[in-house]
Request: fold
Amino acid sequence: MQLMRNLSTQIVLLAVTAPVFILLASWGEIWELLLSPVLPDLQQYIYPRFGLWQLIWQHVVMVFISSTLSVLVGVGLGMLATRGFGRDFLPALNGLVSIGQTFPPVAVLALAVPVLGFGAGPTIAALFLYGLLPIVRNTIGGLESVGPEVREAATGMGMSEMQTLWRVEMPLSFPVIMAGVKTSVIINIGTATIGATIGAGGLGAPIVTGLASDNTAYILQGSIIAALFAIIVDTLLEMVERLFASRR
Amino acid sequence: MIRLQAVSKSYGTHQAVTNLDLTVDEGELCCLIGPSGCGKSTALKMINRMVEPTSGVITIGGRNVREMVPEQLRRGIGYVIQSIGLFPHMTVRDNILVVPRLLNWEDGKAAARAAELLDLFELSPAQFGGKYPGELSGGQAQRVGVARALAADPKILLMDEPFGALDPINREHLQNQFMAIQRELRKTIVFVTHDIDEAVRLGSKVALLRQGQLVQYTTPEQLLSSPADNFVKKFVGLDRALKRLSRLSTQDFLRPAAAVTLSISPEELRRQFRLLEESQCARYLWVIDENRRLLGWIDATDGGSGVTLKEGLVEVDPAEMTVKENYSLKHALSMFVQQGVVCLPVVDDQRALCGEIRLADVLQS
Reply:
């Protein structure tokens, strides 16, 4: 019961967004129904090359692969940089992370093309690099915020460095790390639309085509679905975080 | 037994500890004391290898700690720090069980141990076991901290100013509780403090350090009665005699007390007064009820004038006029002075009379 109360906001949010998302993604005609009064001059209201679910799937694959890599590598780097032996890298990594964050995603993508070519591959690589940054930063921040007295107690009681990390430091910094993961994934969902400019498909495809052919309906389709998708994923991640941090 | 032989620790050019020799016998509570920066904490932390000495040898029960795996060494030594360091994401019970779990105790044994320890520290397992450290008061948290250190029943306890962050009332309460537990468990304890009163009260030995060097290592009585030099004299303070009193408890001066109940007959009362006059050492008869609970006192000089017990009874406020068995003598002395009396009734927790102490006895000590 306590759990349900903790999650009530998220449950309500999901109950609203998920049906709208499914409705808009499954029932193509609804776009024509809703948009024809506002945009009467269009010949086509529905993006013709792929179905919306197909685009969503392409999007999910890109975001899932890149974000999973970002989490694994980002959390790993954060852990290494806060260990005794990795501490020398901490300032360098912090600097790199800050600089990396100031790069616009389009620039990362543009730089990725000459190296990796067109398609989903370079997009995933760019998303991975871009999504790495908030995770590294929050992992370092979270681990550094664990009080020295807690660390001293852990060592003094005979925990090894690894036990201290996994039994004490990670659980304590979990909320902060999770916040970084959330930021990273949400940024990636949005940024992945840009992948369409280099032929990666996904929800960016109708947006790019719509911009090129001056079809506002396509643009709305891609962006509204992507936005709803981002809200749903954010809510789900929020629920995961609360599930683990519901105690205390 | 813990033995430090010619142990030194330097940080760069700074000598934190210089050539320290110290032996703590089994069951002994050794207080390391000195001004801040004297190296007492460093000395303590070298025992469980939180700090590695620059030179010298530390042995525990004859084994060189250098030859043990640090983690295993530490799991066999209870460790309490001033900032407590409870793990905020674990319940009180899980906090206590950290070391037993590191040692792979089975669940049933571990759970029983946690309940036993919470009971020992007067924290109800049902009420506190599932709480998180954030829900505890400072005193409760530090009790859990000490319980955690005792969890795997280590022979040795290292305590780094464990009661330093508590308010005076909580500190004294915890000190008493801790001493009662220590009398029973007889752990070998190294206890760092900067509070000379605490060292004198708790320690069976006191080691005074200055600038990393051992100045005097002896019993608290010796430290107070024959300080080695002016530094020690200054450090222990001018009220050395008073401090010695804090090591003694009212129990040490307890005398049987003459007492009568309200239902006593006038003849018997007169007889008691006569007895008192003959003995010439007390002027009061304590008045108690059927359960030996203290009600008040009656002045023997009134006895001759034939007053009844009811008329002569002076009721006492137990909070102001009585001392308990386990009070420090310093406390009792302060009550003598405050109340302007030469004799105080001693009661137990149920307010039952167990005897009396007299100012004259205390002054003779």
Observations:
- The first strand of chain B starts at residue 2 and ends at 11.
